[in-house]
Write a structure and sequence with these properties.
The chain is about 35% helix and about 25% strand. The chain contains 12 helices and 18 strands. The longest helix is centred in the last third of the chain and has 33 residues, at about 370-405.
């Protein structure tokens, strides 16, 4: 982390600042609505303690549905220029390594005073969407007081939605929560279908989850997608779009998360040609998604590898400042123009900055940040998010090297995930590891399938070396 300009330790002055807080604030500068009686729930990772958002939905008499997303009011505690804010502005994100999390905010904030914990009254910024047939009809943003009725987890909710498991106990304990989850799932699927019709890309990817036996790293396993993860993803994408447009309507700038046109569209075209499919010469998200859907239907077993290849070729996102009435680039992969990171202010600094802009709009104040300051912050957040990703990847590689250290000399089926003058990288599905192709990389490119032998690991440096066989 230090090598990547990230601070691993929370400054003492920030911890002292938090120690002076006695309880979560219950009054805000802007007007707030009392929405504590609604059937709010949180859905996150099994081990998440920093709960940034709640959601709920209700059917309306005209056949439309109202969706509410409550985002923790972090700004009420983390004031600009405070010691906590200064540290958050350095790292700009929580860093999630294999065994240890380095939170952007002190634990007492992110897991307690600003976390939307169950059975606790909390202040929040609520994003309201009215949706009909997956299309947004109207929206609003306002302050509210909320109360989480059920702390739920992706895996158990996802299994229940798919008919593969029981209703999670925290949901079963709340009358009506089962219907609430079903309604949110229906809304999310309708929103997803609408985005796909506009060219949003459908991928099949999985993160790698470390498995521990006590404090001993026992293995690595894929952390697969499920319906509950999709539910939250779709609601958050919709809420982020509403906030971006809300700030634009209020004549305030916003920080957008954008993915410009793909860096290596030519290689994506080549991958399609290898399966007999044709893509246009110019980047086209609708055409790309049609290709992806066709390949998923015809070769479901190879779709995860294809997804990973295309994601690598699309390139990473960045934060940019959009002025009111401006024309910021959109998010190519999501097929949305208006996309601001707003729903995780406990974990991401751009979300906290956006929250301050939203509260200024609600109170009728001008932007709390000059344009040049916002632009500098956006560039810094992009850089630090990339640095955090590199740290997380480095530790994952060390974990993977440790897990496969006894398998040196064995050969695996692999897919090329990176090819540049700096080197060629390959990924193995079982076990889920990635490493460098130190010999035999001539003439291969992203998306190619090869056979590779594991020749060397270096746990401390996170090196996993393969040669082509």
């Amino acid at each position: 982390m230090l090598d990547r300009s990230l601070q691993p330790n929370m400054p003492n002055e920030a911890l002292e600042e938090v120690s002076r807080l006695s309880a979560a604030p219950q009054t805000a500068d802007e007007p707030v609505r009392d929405l504590r009686s609604l059937l709010w729930c949180s859905i996150d990772n099994d081990d998440s303690r920093d709960l940034d958002q709640l959601s709920m939905g209700e059917s309306l008499p005209d056949g439309s549905v109202r969706v509410l997303v409550a985002v923790a009011d972090v700004d009420i505690v983390v004031r600009p220029g405070s010691a906590v804010d200064r540290h958050a502005a350095v790292n700009t994100t929580s860093v999630y390594t294999t065994a240890v999390t380095f939170p952007m905010l002190p634990d007492r904030l992110s897991t307690d005073l600003t976390s939307l914990n169950p059975d606790a009254d909390r202040l929040a910024i609520v994003v309201e969407l009215v949706v009909r047939a997956g299309a947004l009809v109207r929206s609003d943003v306002y302050g509210a007081r909320v109360r989480n009725k059920a702390k739920l987890a992706y895996n158990s909710v996802g299994a229940w939605l798919a008919g593969e498991g029981p209703l999670p106990a925290p949901a079963a304990a709340v009358p009506g929560m089962d219907g609430q989850l079903e309604l949110q799932d229906q809304i999310a699927q309708a929103l997803r279908r609408d985005r796909i019709s506009h060219g949003a890309l459908e991928f099949q990817t999985s993160e790698v989850r470390a498995e521990f036996d006590g404090e001993r790293l026992a293995g690595l396993a894929p952390d697969l997608p499920n319906r509950a993860k999709q539910l939250i993803e779709d609601l958050m994408i919709a809420a982020n779009g509403v906030v971006a447009r809300f700030l634009d309507q209020k004549k305030l700038p916003s920080i957008r998360r954008v993915v410009r046109t793909p860096k290596r569209w030519d290689r994506i075209v080549q991958l399609a040609a290898q399966t007999g499919d044709a893509l246009p010469a110019a980047p086209d998200s609708r055409a790309l998604n049609a290709f992806l859907r066709k390949r998923k239907e015809e070769n479901p077993g190879g779709f995860a590898d294809l997804s990973l290849s295309v994601i690598k070729l699309l390139g990473s996102g960045e934060y940019v400042v959009d002025q009111p009435g401006g024309d910021a680039p959109g998010h190519f992969g999501l097929a949305v123009r208006d996309y601001a990171h707003t729903t995780a202010p406990n974990r991401r600094y751009p979300d906290l900055l956006t929250q301050r802009l939203v509260k200024a709009a609600l109170e009728g104040r001008p932007s709390p940040y000059p344009t040049d300051t916002l632009e500098q912050l956006a560039a810094h957040c992009t850089e630090q998010e990339d640095n955090a990703a590199k740290v997380e990847r480095r530790v994952r590689k060390s974990a993977a090297a440790l897990v496969v250290s006894s398998r040196v000399g064995q050969s695996f089926d692999a897919i090329v995930t990176g090819a540049s003058p700096k080197g060629t990288w390959v990924r193995v599905a079982v076990p889920p590891i990635e490493g460098m192709l130190v010999r035999g990389g001539e003439g291969v490119d992203v998306g190619d399938h090869i056979r590779a032998r594991l020749t060397r690991v270096d746990v401390e440096r996170g090196f996993i070396d393969f040669v082509r066989v």
